[in-house]
Amino acid sequence: RNMSSAGPEGRKKMRECEGLIDSLVYYIQGAIADHEPNDKATENCVCILHNLSYQLEIELPESYAQSIYMQRRNISNNDKTPGCFGTRSRKVKEKQQDTPLPEEKSNPKGVESLWHSTLIRIYLSLIAKSTRNYTQEASLGALQNLTAGTGPMPLAVARTVVQKASGLPSIRAMLHVSHPAVKKTAVSLLRNLSRNTSLQNDIAREVLPDLVSILPEGVPGCEAACETTASVCYTLLNLTQSSAHNARLLLSAHGLPKLIAISINDSNMFSKASRAASVLLYSLWSHTDLHSAYKK
């Protein structure tokens, strides 16, 4: 577990170690089958896999990446990717929808297992069944790592989490735990998932009211809470900027008074949350058909 956090070279060596990843996955599967998701060894295994999934798509050897994405279209590196601010361009949306997904192997070995649907379902199972905070956080963190990029792998993992494995209810439950790091990682994962335009309506329907419910009534109490609040706001921004229906959902969940209270804070320490709330409010105002409802 310590070695897996030693940086890019350490991760590379461990990913290349024959049988290591397979053994970790095998152990976790056995622990779940035996109804023992809370033992320390399972926590260690998940934390290792979490670390090995960090920057996975970037760090894969070029030849290996090409073999995974045989169907991948040539997309210029100069294309702009959507950020937190501003609306998405039509080209970006079309590219995201049309990107072919990597074909999944029925019997993955080694590094192939790290983004395979089998392991994704294991993470979701641990999130639902384990009561160990480090195991929950590592499982959420691994999924966060795997959905962090803009290539075919993150898109495939996101679709598996939301549509194939029906993972949103388990992630939603983590928004309401008392452990701040677990909650923060769950929000960060949802923020990654919400960047995928094809999944936004599913995510909004399942978790938008919950996201609004965990927003503070005013200024967040500490820096960690400030970061979580900012991340919630950017997730809501992704879900609402292209959908008046989702913006109305936010309104129905009584999100507007909270956002206004957060946005007017002047403290430098909490400016990240304040700025995020302001950006979201600005975006919500672009839905002109909702102006009268906002004013009420």
From TrEMBL:
Annotated keywords: Cell adhesion, Cell junction, Repeat
Segments of skewed composition (Basic and acidic residues): 94-107
Compartmental location: Cell junction
Chain intervals for the UniProt region annotation (Disordered): 79-109
Cellular component GO terms held in the UniProt record: adherens junction; cytoplasm; intercalated disc; nucleus; plasma membrane
Main location: other
GO biological process entries: cell-cell adhesion; desmosome organization; heart development; intermediate filament bundle assembly; protein localization to plasma membrane
Family: Belongs to the beta-catenin family.
PANTHER family the record matches: PLAKOPHILIN-2, PLAKOPHILLIN-RELATED
Name recorded for this polypeptide: PKP2 protein
High-level lineage: Eukaryota, Metazoa, Chordata, Craniata, Vertebrata
Name of the encoding gene: Pkp2
